[in-house]
Structures are given as C-alpha cells and as structure tokens.
Amino acid sequence: MGVESVNDVPSRAKLDLSPCRSLDQGHIVNLIRRGFKYKLDPTAEQEVLFRQFAGACRAVYNTALYQRQNFWRQYAARTGGRISYASQCRELTTLRASFNWIAAVSQTCQQQALRDLDKAYQNFFAGRAKVSDTAA
C-alpha cells in the first residue's frame, strides 16, 4: 500500500493564535492545531479488508442503534437498568460467536462503533447534540 503525504500547511504559516487559555499562575498557553492529510493507495486485497471492516462495524452500529430505539423498554423492565455500552459489549461477544463474518473482523473497531453510539446518546440526552429538522 502506498501512502502519500498531502500536507498543504507550510511549516512557517501564519497561525491564528486567538484561541488562548489562561492558567492559574497567569501564564497564557497558545493552542496551535495543525493537521496532516494522507492519501492511501491500498492494494486490491487491502481494499477488500477495508470494506469488510467497514461493513462489520456498520452492521454492529446499526444493530445496536436498532436495539436502543426499539427494545429499551423491555430491557429496562427485565433488568431495571438502561441499555449501555457495557451491556451491548456483552452482547457483541454473543453476536461474534454467531456470525463468522463479524468475528473475522477485529473487535476493537466494533467496540469503537458501540462507544460512538453510546456517546451520541449521552450527548443527545445532555442537550449537547445538534438535531436536524430533517431527521425522521
């Protein structure tokens, strides 16, 4: 796989240092954010693996979302708690044992998909999420 650096930020660029944060002792810390972009050129075999990882993670995320949208009442009545990242991770183990195509992919990215969903729910119920008018 070829990796090409597509960094278009010059090393001596004029940076906006306006977002500053003061410390307790009166010192000012300037926050400088600099990003790098890389363009991947995967082989055909690597592209298949990327798609397999993405498909399995998407399936885990969508299944977990479906559970949270449709089964939270039954889960609360049965356990007295709410559906959480930890409870869905326990179910991920069972799901991986049932489907070889999900087990073939690293569980780390699948757990991250569950973390992302849990964080989205936490942000929504804390009022930090932006809800679009087109969401149905």
Name a few traits of the molecule:
136 residues, mainly alpha
Taking all residues together, what is the mean pLDDT? 82
Number of helices: 5
Low-confidence stretches: none
Strand order of the largest sheet: 1-4
What structural class results from the helix and strand content?
Answer: mainly alpha
Q: In angstroms, what separates the terminal alpha carbons? A: 40 Å
Number of E-state strands: 4
Report the major sheet.
2 strands, antiparallel
User: H/E series, N to C?
Assistant: EEEEHHHHH
Domain Transposase putative helix-turn-helix: 33-74
Pfam family, one: HTH_OrfB_IS605
Organism: Bradyrhizobium iriomotense
Protein name: Transposase putative helix-turn-helix domain-containing protein
Overview of this protein structure:
- The chain is mainly alpha-helical and 136 residues long.
- The protein has a domain at 43-125.
- It is built from 5 helices and 4 strands.
- It has helices spanning 44-70, 72-79, 85-98, 100-103, 107-125, and strands at 2-5, 20-22, 28-30, 38-41.
- A hairpin with a 5-residue loop joins strand 2 and strand 3 (28-30).
- Helix 1 packs parallel to helix 5 (107-125) and helix 3 (85-98) runs antiparallel to helix 5 (107-125).
- The chain is flat and about 55 Å long.
- 8% of the residues are buried.
